Amino acid sequence: MFEFVTKDYPTDPGVYLMKNAQGKVLYVGKAVNLRSRLSSYFRGEVAHPKTRALVARVAGVDVLVTGTEKEALLLEASLIKKHRPRYNIVLRDDKSHILFKLDKTHDFPKIAFTRRVVRDGSTYFGPFTSAQAARKTWRELNRLFPLRKCRDVSFKNRVRPCLYHFIGQCLAPCVGAVGKADYAVLVRRVEAFLSGKSADVLKRAEREMLEASEALQFERAAELRDLLAAMRATIEGQAAVLPNHPDLDALDVFSAGGGMGLTVLFVRQGRLLDRANFFWPDFTDEELPEALPSFLAQYYKPESFVPGRVMLSQRMMEAMGEEAAAVTADILGERRGARVVLNAPRTDEERRLVEIASANAARAVAEAGAGGAQESMPALLGRKLQVGREIGRIEVVDVSHLGGKGMRVGMVVYEDGRFDRQEYRQYAFPELEGSSDDYAALARWVEKRIDSGEPWPDLVLIDGGKGQLAAVERAMGAAGLPHLWEIASIAKSGRAMNAQDDQVFRPGRKNPLALRPGSRELLFLQRLRDEVHRFVIGRQRQVRKKQAFASEVLNLPGVGPKTAKLLWERFSTLEGIKSATVEQLAEIKGLGPRKAAVVHAALHSSPPR
Question: Which of 20, 221, 303, 427 has the fewest Cβ atoms within 10 Å of its own Cβ atom?
Fold first, then answer.
């Protein structure tokens, strides 16, 4: 039991980290006065059952002093993201939502997908929580407005129009089929449409249609007529909730059954665009004052789109308090690069919008299983794998090689309900080349993974049987960290070719776990195994393709490893080099006209040896 000594802690603002006996961070909190805040946990009776459970597990408390409450809030958000403590509000899906990006620094901009806001002069529209919905909208926009779709590299090197031009969805600026001025008119129309100024766009298009008709340009008039019809059909599907309002997000929470749901509604130019739902078990209204600033600092990251106004329900504003709300608004303003207003609804329409957010938050609670519904996957896995706690972060590993050549271990990460592809890794082991030793590769992977440090996984799932599991277990023991993370392996049973006969092994057990074929947990583990297998095989193919390419190109006269690398990065196939002109080859930085002429002549005089 942790013994709290008051004089050991400062009275400054800062952040505190509560840890268990194994050193794992259980909770991260901020305080204006660290000593006073920590005293509330360890002096006197703690009322809330969840807080009592937390305090009972605390074996130590670390503190980090900051200069201001604002710095404490920023540091708290950073540490929560790093440690993902069990007793904090942690975003189940903290990735940024999809945005449309219109790069206006380019002479012929296109609409691209992005998850990061970079202040480079581009214009952003969104966000969209569903990639499928975003792509559907993107296709509709391209049907309405024929902007280019190709990447900048393809745009520079294209010599004839692509298929999109022939089906009427691109003006082919790549081959000079449209001038900058005419293309700029289309870009302004797209920008106005996405900004919610659809009425102005419709009026201009209708005026242009009448002018084209009077000038006997019937083909152009027909194009504008079809554009008008398509835009009107698109606009009818949008819900106008706050006419003549600027961009804002509306939030509310709903508590029931020992859990709390929160919904963010995205309102752009007065129209309800999308929403995001969150749910945290074992959270109540009593925790709102501390949880809300933490959520907002985590959700609106520096690379996120931050609207000019964030509207919270009246009870959320009261729970936060004026001082915390002002500090949070200041942080969001810095991330936006302009002032952000954080306040409650002021009109009946705004209150109605918050009611919609509240209804969606209640739905999030119901769908997440508060009050006895379906068990969450982290809890189900913890119980079925006999871990004794929820499993959050899972790292899945698989060994891949071709007859001992190209020995690699691929790793994918599943965390908080999604595959985190930014965390995928491929580990190469040239020292094991030719050995075909999967066990040695897994042991080396354990060493490299420990060297890379936190965040540690709750579970490492290995594609393999008891031998692969034992290899990882031995390597963890040899490193002096036998209990750093839980491990399990998944393998075919050998009884049949039926995929449902996969078996899952855990250390200390001779027989596999009794997981029912077709059960939620087994199907989930199979999905993880299939993803790492897809990833590592795909990377192996890329490496072999690159090696084969380099082998062919290096046989060309005057081409060495450096030139081969430049050609690979630019074209990636031998056919791509062969179809390139001398001018296109010379455009490659580091190649030059003379070397380009040598390569081009070698390619077209005789095939590579």
Answer: 303
